[in-house]
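Assess this:
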Amino acid sequence: MDVSANISPWRWLSGAALLPLSCAAIAQVAAASVDQKVDSLIAKMTLEEKAAQLQDSAPAIPRLGIPAYAYWNEALHGVARSGEATVFPQAIGMAATWDKALIHAEGDVISTEARAKYNRAQKEGNFGKYFGLTFWSPNINIFRDPRWGRGQETYGEDPYLTGVLATEFVRGIQGDDPNIYKAVATSKHFAVHSGPEPLRHQFNVDPSMQDLAETYLPAFRRTVIEGKVASLMCAYNAVDGKPACANDMLLDQTLRRSWGFTGYVVSDCGAIDDVSGGHRYRPNNIEGAAASIKAGTDLACVFKNEYLDIPNAVKRGLLSEAEVNLALHRVLASRVRLGILASGPTRFDSIPYSEDHSQAHRDLALRAAREAMVLLKNEGALPLRKVARVAVVGPGATSLISLEGNYNGTPVGAVLPLDAIRAALPKASVSYAQGSPFAEGAAVAVPRTAFATGVTATFFKGIGLAGRAIVTRHYDQLDYNWNWIAPAPGVDPKEFSVRWTGMLKVPAPGDYRFELQRRRCDADSQIDRYTIDIEGARPLHVDAPCSARDAGDSQTVAVHFAAMRQRRITVEYAHKSKSFAPAMTLAWRAPAAAQLAEAVAAARRSDVVLAFVGLNAWLEGEEMPVEIPGFAGGDRTDIRLPAPQRDLLDALEATGKPVIVVLQSGSAVPLGAQGAKARAIVQAWYGGEQGGRAIADVVTGAYNPAGRLPITIYRDNGQLPAFTDYSMRERTYRYFTGTPEYPFGYGLSYTRFQYGPWKLGGTQPDGSGHAIHASVPVTNVGNVEGDEVVELYVSPPRERSDAPRKSLKGFKRIHLRPGEQQTVEFDIGAEELAFADKDGVRKMLPGLYAVWIGGGQPGTGAPGVGTNLGIDNTIVLPR
């Protein structure tokens, strides 16, 4: 509720003088007004109504004027799961930009599009999941191990980088109005949560106090204290023997008492059930729900209506109604501050739907995708100059999911890499071959080269594939995302049928298996059936709801091609649902030798090979039923590039043609011997809707890359501790003593930068805000304009052997033309020089600190300058 609109900034004092109210005073009045409204509503509710309001799908209470509201919304890198939206690079790619202003702008775009969607949904009477204003983002868990499948959702392995970027994202989401939220952000998953995915509902973590204070909690602390985040999500796992959502040390002592958090805490989905069912911390859900409320979990994301047991807990004396009221007060206060329970309109109510995926937002997606690109290696192969023949090879070159990542919106108009390369090199002959699947045993989208003349899709009204066609469209391949959008103009996404037809041409004789994968499907669909009919094979008919998990279907059509003769294929699909249409992919398992031979032939006909290899979000992600070599349950068991793609790179490099590797992934993928032979390597992440164009811009020199790794790329599993070991020993660049393939903070450019001498000023930190002021001139000494990411690292005195070896303590992304110089400044105070001791107390102690300012870590070949700072004081910082 925009209460400031109804409160004058002036008031009468002593019946005579008009005096201005301070901003702080206005905020206090506004907060009091919110409290009064919420308390008034709670006082009129029954206990059963209160319990229902504490679940993520809160029902309406008409007599109190409370509308239904669904809290569950996602926005890791754009508004997710509610149709067309601007899709930015996956969060790990956002982190690779090292650009605070950009991350803030992305958050602002997300909240603008959220309001546009919410405003239209309200007019349509849509109060469902994914159309509200409370977003369960950002994910700020520390990406401590590259095997974790959800690491792609994070900002990487460093607590400082994570905390700073997350704080900007939160501020962008929530807006700058002190009285009303533009939208609500949620820092998750609190805390100490980063796999393994298959164990997350049962495992317990016993982190040291030092690791908690130094690594696992700082980003959360920053988003609470500096970002004023409105919500936190507690994790599935237990910490020190207590489930995170029933953990008073985390939720009460740390979050509320030490950090002063005043917002609400929401459980991860089903985590309340885990209190009794997974962790066996309580004997039944009644006691589990009571323990969670008492610890400080205010709102439950439920699969089994866990918080509806709250009245039973109160009746049994396990919980007081006052404790229920406190939780409900925190939750409803957020809805008041969003304007959902307001007495009047807010300034955000007028945001039109035309703001969703606007041209300005698409431009920002392109900027983000460009800034995320990290040039890992370049032996003069990039940028491409005058090139006549280019072979684009690899499963990622035309893969939509390799742009999307997970927790994404619907990328209308997404630019695939192959199409972008062809557009960027209009005078070159650009050939394409898929070359391999992403991983052994995994189906991959049937490539466009397998369709002689593409695919024709004919759409019909209703589910009968009958009557006059609504529209007919032509596609290069069958690989779409239709989540909450019309599959084609005039088609109702909730009820339609479609027939695809085409001619299959395989790269070589052999045995092929085909399947239709219904991704992001609605398991509650009324009708979801399809038929695959390939000439010469028995048709496959499936009439069953698709899996709620994004794993696709396992039923396949086996076809033996004895010759290269083309065969007709027809795929028919009918869909009826109250909510949304799925993503659809016609996939195959093709003979490896046939795919490889096709790719090698394309390479031999070319002057240069662009190899698009990596992973995708169907292989690495959240708790997925994937069990193939190198992958298990959403996590990876081997961090190397999967074997079929290693074989592909070996074969391409054996042709003697220069190979440029474009690596699309959400985590660290060492390339080993294949990377050593490559002429250049670009880490492209999951680049979002404009990812393909950004890749083309980088490889052709239209954009000078400057992204930096937010993770360490280790050489292989042998450099990693056990996945289940949460100790920070030998984890991340801060504690790792080995030699990685590429270090955290690393990234190359098409130009060169030079760092000048230090200038130091200010005073020694003394606990009262004083700091050492450091400034260093940075000059572009190359011939190309570009960005430089200036990184500040601090190493503690040698006496502090238990502290991190070095830690990022500041960064700035700047742009310089050739010959241009800019002085970059940092303040180095107690926060930058303090490290946690074994008891978790952050202290700045006397001693000699090593400080480095440069384009990467010290000792990695990055340009920069270092100095030593002698500190005389001892300062203990608050927890």
Confidence is low (pLDDT under 50) at residues 1-23, 548-552. The radius of gyration is 28 Å. Residues 100-123 form the longest helix (24 residues). Residues 416 and 720 are 34 Å apart (CA to CA).
